[in-house]
Amino acid sequence: MKKVIITVSSVTYAIKGRKLLSKQNIDSRIVKIDASQSNNGCTHGIEFNSSLLLEAVRILRENGIAYSLYGE
Amino acid sequence: MIYLDNAATSFPKPRSVIEETEICIKKYCANSGRSSHSLAIRTSEEIYRARECVSDFLSANSPENVCFTANATYALNFAIKGLITKKCHVLISDLEHNSVLRPIHKLHKTKGIDYSVFSTSGDIAENIKKCIKPTTKAIVSTLMSNVSGKEIPLEILSKIAKKHNLLLIVDASQLIGHKKINLSKNPCDALCAPGHKGLFGIQGAGFLVFGKEIPTQTVIEGGSGNESKNPGMPKNLPERMEAGTLPTPSIVALRAGIEYINKLGLHYIEEKNKMLTDIFHESLKQIDGIELFGSENGIISFRFRDKESSEIASELDRFGICIREGLHCSPLAHRTLGSYNTGLIRVSLSIFNKESDAEHLVKALREILF
Question: Which helix (H) or strand (E) element contains residue B268?
Answer without folding.
Answer: helix B266-284
